[in-house]
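Q: Is it fine to ask for two folds in a single conversation?
A: Yes, each is treated on its own. Send the first.
Q: Here.
A: Result:
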Amino acid sequence: MKKLMLVFPILLLSSCSIYESTEQSFLSSEEVSINHEYDEIVNQKLLWNDIFSVAKPTYFVYFYSLVCQNCNSIKNEIIEYGLNNDDIYFVQDSKEFVFGNDITKTIGISDISFFFISGFPTLIEIDNAILVNHVVGVNNIRKTLFL
């Protein structure tokens, strides 16, 4: 019986030290990660009606909602891209947004009155005032911007 009592405290001590080392490494990695906010790219924000009015030949426009889980999952990456590249603009959801289903119908347009998105997050590419690429979803946006 005495041997069993000695083993139990040793197991408790060893599990506490494992917990502490795990917690320390978690805190260390948490301190290293950067949590961006959309305020950091305030100069790159557009209104819905202005997406075809940028004075650049080629650029991206990213549409997001603050309450969208998928938008939040890519938020740090997309803001980091915006901080390091001047070819992307951001449009936060508003009552002006128009939603539709077949985004292929937007390819080739150059007028906001024909534009719509199907959901969040959405990324479009505009080349010489013509929409040339329209992707929806985190994975498609990552493929477009980061590959």
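Q: Second one now.
A: Result:
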Amino acid sequence: MIVFFALACEADDREKLALIYEKHKRIMYSAAYSILFDSYLAEDAVHEAFIAIARNISKLGAAESRETAAYAVRAAKTRALNILERNKKEVFLDEEAVDIAFEESEFDRVIAKSEISAIAECINCLPQKYRIVIVLRYIDDMKPSRIAQNLGLKTDTVKKRLLRGRAMLRDMLEASEE
């Protein structure tokens, strides 16, 4: 926390940063953990996010505002994605995450026939390049353009990977039903 205060020079900025830290650290951690599935890496992502917040503290509104909360969560997710890319960490899902994400999606027809555990297992079996875009799109509800930006890809590439990933997932789920 001392590092963050050192980055925020003015006393008002230090107060605002302390408030942001106290108000939003838990949700930032949850957002980072939902991407990384590793508590230590999620803590690193939150730490990196607070460094970025400290650098831009004067541009932020009130610590309690929804915009500041959204910015803090986006910063944590972005840092988590950066860590994920840096480490080339495999993304694996648990059944609960899949259950929540696919509750009201285009896969309702498939979910009605399949168990959630089978869906999580099938997603985990996808090749990494398809798995990560499926997770970011349907679990984290990111738009393809944002996914492309975070992964350093073209939007068309992300859309194509989503298309192919969904097709592979559909085929795996249909094969597991038989």
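Q: Anything structural to flag on that second result?
A: Two points. Residues 11-36 form the longest helix (26 residues). Confidence is low (pLDDT under 50) at residues 1-8, 102-107.
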